[in-house]
């Protein structure tokens, strides 16, 4: 992080007070409101946080999860990690808007906006603690109302599962939504619909509880969420940001230079799995190597390839199809009419969470029904063309491709891995959890997960790193609390230091 977030506020305050006494009179715009409304802050924070998550999916999580692969600057794939400070900085900046939005909504009795702000904060804090471990949480955002510019790092356990942690905050939001008939103002996700926000809050609870299931019994809580009926019922409930074709709502990757986009291609791991099943989603995720027109993307004549993760080093396969038309307008290629969405969560993810929990005995129910629902919803979300891949219907694909449920956890994991493309940081978080469980909850050897490959020329003995490093500036700007967080990790700000979730 370039600046600790409280230090940013301090600099602003000091700069303001050092100006001459007439500054306020000279520089006040009489036509500008003194207080920004909560809806404006929610809109801004949603767009900025989502844009950041899309970018980090492209640069980090999709590649760590081996859905895609980096062919340049491939430290990510090679497991030679640094702080990845942009995620920390951009998400804490978005949190300042969301905390302000919550406070303003409370003052103005805008209950729906208060609740939506809490849900968005919960999603972002979840992302940060899952990436880094212990992080500033309870004291993270207080700005000019406090002289504390060195916030403590709360424990990951308290953040995820404590009395004032994320599950409790999501419950608070759900209760608030039940107290109002008014829409969420400034809402880019659900156009104000509070019922949809309640569903999202419940799906995020299921996501967190599944991650917690290796630490404690979560069965009663998960079953209560499933039983209450306020969950996604189809793709219409997906929590996504619909990008358009122009600034400021264009998909964040479209402005990239050609060289930046070429640095990420489809991975060998994912292309092999798509081809094993003759899965039509390959035509949405990737553009064929023999591009001629848009119809080629999902045609039997299309040829696809995948690069080995960690392929920048000599001796590794650097091939790999470029990402699909929805992700980038590639020079000299046909232009797709569909932009990819920013994704918080989907019906597909929800159904695979439930299927996994049933398969593990955490929930009651029919795991195959949810598993099948998930795959069909994923196909529909990407609007795939089954016919051109030789399938007469989804049932034909499900029954005859090899994807049919076989009562194993690996089958569920495999489909979730495929489906989480560009779901923020969740591809990394979920693959890390799967690798951990595949190693008997005692290690991160990637080879334990059958559909992944040990990255070529990896620099971490084939072990997936457990966390991102804290940004370097934290050591100087928040030294005491930074050191306490490092001590809690065993004394090293290392990519292999074990956060609470994996102790």
Automatic annotation (TrEMBL):
InterPro entries: SusD-like_2, TPR-like_helical_dom_sf. It comes from the Bacteria. The keyword Isomerase does not apply. Coiled coil: none annotated. It holds the Pfam family SusD-like_2. SUPFAM superfamilies: TPR-like. Keywords: Lipoprotein. This is SusD/RagB family nutrient-binding outer membrane lipoprotein. The lineage of its organism: Bacteria, Pseudomonadati, Bacteroidota, Flavobacteriia, Flavobacteriales.
